[in-house]
Design goal:
With about 170 residues, this protein is α+β, with helices and mostly antiparallel strands. The protein is built from four helices and seven strands.
Length: about 170
Amino acid sequence: MGTLPPRTTVVWRGRRQPVGELAGRLRLAWRPRLGLRSAAVTVYAPTYGRLRLVVTRNRHGNYECLATGELHADLTRVVERKLSRWSVETIFRDTKQYTGLGACQCWTDQAMVRHVALVLVGFVVLQQLRLDHAESVAAVKERWQLAIAHQGEPPPVPLRACPAHLRATA
């Protein structure tokens, strides 16, 4: 299961069209259990073959086209799978952006395993340093970096040459 880009060509009811165009033509029904509008159709994609296409509209009004090879998959099950994966995707994004998972330049397998282990330890530490459950990992990292950089000393007095709107962050 995955998301199809809007320009992916599909054939539905004998018409060849981009999936983004098809999404705009489908009549989406309100699904109270999911809290969104959606519709499911079976299409043929020249690149992937026959697919079950589930089109949803997110809270911003954008279409999301979810595709699965399970031609008889239930619409609700496909959407719930996508929603359940979101927390995993945000963890991968956060570990890449804030703890350096994507910065691995190791030449040996053992070094790569150690790098990933240390990245995950760093991520756990950032999670534990949260002051509030709603605080983001980025905010924790920034707070921690500023505390280390200042070493407990107050920040220096802003320069007069610094514009007034930047003095609070200088």
